[in-house]
Amino acid sequence: FSYEVSRSLAACEGALLVVDAAQGVEAQTVANVHLAHKEGLKLIPVINKIDLPSSDIPGVKRQLEEILAIPAEEALLVSAKTGQGISEVLEAVVHRLPMPKGSEGEELRALVFDSVFDTYRGVIAYVRVVSGEITAGTPIQLMQSGRKYETKEVGTFSPKLTPGKRLGPGDTGYLVANLKTTAEIDIGDTITNSLKPAKEPLAGFRKVQPMVFSGIYPINSADFEKLKLALGKLQINDSALVYTPESSPALGFGFRCGFLGLLHMEIVQERLAREFDMEVISTYPSVIYEVHLTNGKVLKVENPVQMPDPSVIEEIREPMVTVYLLCPNENIGDLVAMVREKRGEVQKTESLDAKRVMLTTEIPLNEILVDFSDRIKSITRGYGSMDYEHGPY
Fold first, then answer.
1. What is the secondary structure of 291-333 as a DSSP string?
2. What SS3 class is residue 258?
3. What does the alpha-carbon distance between residue 391 and residue 393 come to, in Å, rounded to a whole number?
4. Residue 207: inside a domain, yes or no?
5. Mean pLDDT in residue range 187-213
6. Which domain holds residue 81?
7. Taking the chain, what is the end-to-end CA distance rounded to the nearest angstrom?
8. Whole-structure pTM value
9. Do 118 and 58 fall within a single domain?
10. Dihedral pair phi/psi, residue 377, rounded to 5°
């Protein structure tokens, strides 16, 4: 979900960087700090869980300085469990973070950073207004798709959705505009006034494409229609989920589903079980390959049946990922061996502190789909962590 995170960060002036007082800086912490710096955000470091007996506050402060280049004296000490230090965090948000920027007189430009589906009102878009203003009745246009709507309601979060009269420059809020499904509006799109459209959309938009595919079949073949209905309801809320019917001689009728990544796939399967009481079998996940043909054309292949005749194939490329592995010093050798076994290579090794190292590696996406995270936990006895971002083919 790194793209969604980057769009949410683009809607802010600053962020709280929460680090566990016992676990310290993790691989995901480093990746998200890089995203925040890319968006030019001011960070307030917060060390949480200071009430734990195993907390190591001096060690975590050292990691903030050495790994993330954040001054230790800026860190706030907090226990979310007991409430200690919470008032200081609220004060720091007011005093340390810059004022929201925006210009009143310019054309309307608002960043869509999230959207949710409401049974009664349709899609509710979460927006950050950069310039101009939106009121109920404002005719709006999505700059990437060109779709036009009329705004029915605007409001703010406090923390519930609270209707208001307008959203102006620097405001973060929501709008309702007769959108039927989340597929109609893309995260990262720019909303403008359809009567006086802005010349340029806000930077950073990227059309999200599924990267991991898996077949999902009902355990009871009679539940095919129930599964179809469940996936349809999930897609209303989650436009990144795509699915097409497929059949298997062994498993019967099911669906070929596309996901953003491994976590997205796990969440969808979990929601099918929890919200729809669906027992499903999922096939071994696969990725999209780029097949370059001798005539110069490029095909995207996510199913073996789509593979063209070998005689017309010039080359096949696979998607790569940059994987960040954080581990204790004594496990470096075993992790490097596992990376090589997975057809990957180590690009960089950084010492985080006296006990831990971060490896930056490049590995084919297909190699980390199954058991990769489990093997890291097994090799490091639970002390290792990983994060990854998609790279080129």
1. EEETTS-EEEE-SGGG---GGGEEEEE--EEEEEEEEEGGGHH
2. strand
3. 7
4. no
5. 84
6. 2-96
7. 19
8. 0.71
9. no
10. -60, -40
